Protein 1
Amino acid sequence: MKLHYIGIIRIETDPAHELCAEKDLSAYNIFTRDTYGGLMSLFAKRVAQRTRPGQRQDIKEDSNVIHAYGRTEGVAGIIISDADYPALVAHQLLSKVVDEFLSQYPRIAFISTTEILPFPQLKEYIVKYQDPQQADSIMKIQKELDETKIVLHKTINSVLERGETIDSLVEKSDGLSAQSKMFFKQVGLLVVHRVFE
């Protein structure tokens, strides 16, 4: 599970403009990183333009998924991740990022700019959300529940195995008890037989 791109795109103008973005291209070869970075920006702008205000969508492209969230303020949040990244976590992050961006930059600040706006929180989020289970509390709880379930299954299995072991020991002790009774009977018979000789 990997996040490759988080960005905010202005969608009211044609062509769309990337207001801020952060990329993690460590999964790609060092010689092709610039190319992949440029393609991600291009795909992000295209998908953002096709995302209506209030709409959320996930578009699969090869082994990646583009998660988009359009807002009525004229921007769209875009995340590009691998196919294994949970869509729920991606959309929660999109909501958070777009809300924070809009609280820092009102519509007046970005409506006519052609510059990239500084938004350092993206760097923090792209690092923090690489592991969605650590970033998302629901996934974290689910992981802990799964781990607890595994431990409980192991414990139940070991108790059942111990129960089988106890059953076999009881059977063996019953057998030994029967053998010892037989032994005492035979000893008693031998003693009686010796006395009469």
Protein 2
Amino acid sequence: MSAKIPHFETMEEPELNYIKMFNAGERITVNNCSFGYLSHRIVFYLLNLHIKSRHTYFARAGTSTDKDSYKTDAGLSEQGKLYAEKMGQALLKHREKERQALIDCGAADIPLKPLKVWTSTRRRTVETADWLYEQGYSVRQRTQLSALNPGVCEKMSEKRIRAEFPEEVTKHEADPYHHRYPRAESYHDLAVRLEPIILELERQQEDLLIVAHESVLRVLYGYLMACNATDIPSLSFPRNEIIEIIPASYNNEATSIPIPDLPPEIIPPSPEDISIPVPPSEAPSGAATPMGLGSPKAGPGTPRSGTPRITTTSPPNGTLPEPGEGSLVLVERALRD
């Protein structure tokens, strides 16, 4: 910073449109505040940012009694209830372990930050958080966290989809992020729906656990870790781990928290997901995993598949997944400019 100060020139021209932020949100100056919708959205985003340390956790919902149905709001199966308890226990044990590690390094013996839990309004996500609710933690239901709508492809096998919708399959394989099957949502649609969640996530100053379907976790992880849009649909979140994301000065850091002693059949990613064809193996990332090492050819922060599960990093505050239409691109353009 000291090397840059001699070359820094502040903007004072009254005829220009600009936004200034001082001391990470202490003060914001907007010059010519009537310069458009996009700029107002950027200001709104900047007002929600802060630099206080907090941890964000992602966890899958437990398995339900009707795991292949999107429309049926089924509750947790017995294995799902077992997962919910073990997931909660693993998270609390990890938080206490982190606190003790800080104390051992000389930090003050202070209580952990409060933990909040967000779920969708679907029964299986709400019931996955019930164990933590019984331990006294605050649980809030958010309608925007509902899973991606599969449309007419619900409960259809990949073979049947390819037979009945060959043109749609071709479009999906060409652009899995933007393509939507008939009466379904695309990942871009889901990202636009999650914009209020992303803004509130940036505003959070306490630790936060989000319990949601894998499709939702893909988009949120893609935002925080600056993944490429083409990689988001193929990110994988097995049930035997919780993803922890910690904002840092210049990078977001992601690590995995193992959940031990789960039945093997509920661990694989998306066992209850719809059988929608995925991009062929020559796609940029293939079946990526959140904890992969490094980045693909086109952009930072996106995990590679088949690599060790170790810490990854991303640009600060995340970037939005796709520079396309919709209000979610507002901040990405601001940050790039």
Protein 3
Amino acid sequence: MDGLLIDSEDLYTIFTNEVLREYGKPDLPWNIKAQMQGRPAPEAGRIFEEWAQLPITREEFMAKTSVLQRKYFPQTKPLPGALDLVKTLSKAKHLDIVLATSSHRGTFQLKTDHLSELFSAFSEERRVLGDDPRIPRGQGKPAPDIYLLALKIINDMRRDDESFREVKPEECLVFEDSVPGVEAGRRAGMQVVWVPHPGLLEQYKSKEKEVLAGLTGEQKGDVISPKVSAAGQTVAGGPGSIDDSKAILLSSLEDFPYNRYGIEI
């Protein structure tokens, strides 16, 4: 959602820089922001703290940014192509959409309450937020859990249909702007559309294929254990491979290639 459907990533940078400048620190560079994007708030906060070395506690920093979030987040705007894409997909035949975001409920509401035209397609049951209790602790992106939960939601909603058939992970399409998010989608066994911020794309210049395959190693520590999908299938939990045609890079959501994915509009 952030940086994909709405311009909240740029707002994050603006108010984070306000706090950094207050303490004589340099502005947040893209090589650090790239590591934070898409991750659950605790992990993103850890990465930021290790880099920024601010002379205040995490609680004091969070208090400052909370005030700035209430100022800036109600100003979010849809990114180019986002509204048309969501409207089109929500009306497409034989297709379901779910919003899966690392944003917690409080900040989600600040960012989206004024954008009903964009987010009305995602009713409460079609939302997976970063603080959803169904996501195991520590299993945010780049782990695949958030996307496997979104798939479970889709299949659960379809069960009462007489022609019900389990949707498989490889039949799903994930839209992402962040590198950990791309890896999460690939580890879930799904196809991915990567739409990065120009600043992020510059950071991964000449490494675009590795990102699309989910091979940038954002998942640290132990190898992710195999997951059982909503369809009862075992998803390996591993990334893809270079040039496997299961992920593409786009500069924006405008003029999305629906035909490539067999989407009837």
Protein 4
Amino acid sequence: MDQLPESSPPNYKPSTHIAELSASAPIEDILSVIDRDGGVILNSLVSSEELKSIEKELEKYVKGDRDDDEGFFKGLVPQETILIGGLVGKSDTLAKICEDKVLEELRREILTDHGTRRVEKYDLPYHIDPLLSVSLSFRIQYGAVRQRLHRDDGTHLIEHESKPYQLNNAAQLGCLIAGVETTQANGATMFIPGSHLWDDKREPRLDEVTFAGSSLLSDLCYSIATNVPDQKKR
């Protein structure tokens, strides 16, 4: 990926939007929107006090260089973006948020695998609980170009076929939390509602994206947008 991705026109106006629900909405309603659109904005999931606490807890881990990046991040995340990994081990506040009731319910409904194990003449009920694989902070600095649109489950080499979609077969569930006000200009998440239903032959287009702050994602196409000069960090 030697060439920079194409930028969205500065006057681009999305023709679609992301559905919004309260974090206290019935879990069935949240699951229904994620199943339909691939993601949902959950309002009031995190308080302003919690965001300030996370920022304070992470201050000492912020650094400007990316010398120790692995190849995946060097190829996908712009060098102007500061990464902080292992957040649940660095922020008690964030670790607590990960145990929020609505997130626990969503993980259980979407990611828990159920089946049976054969144990000498008996089939025993069995389940596999989901694991937290990544807790990562993106600090998008001035001038950072957007990411290429992608699905995060590509890290698991998941193939998307032309067959009916089942939410409980999703390989992962991501939760993005906006720590500051995010806009199209300063690097808000680019998101294509419904792209979780596509097979791998379907290429995403820039004229299909909309922009989000805090949202829950499954395996849809998304990326981080460009942070143009004179905008706040995101």
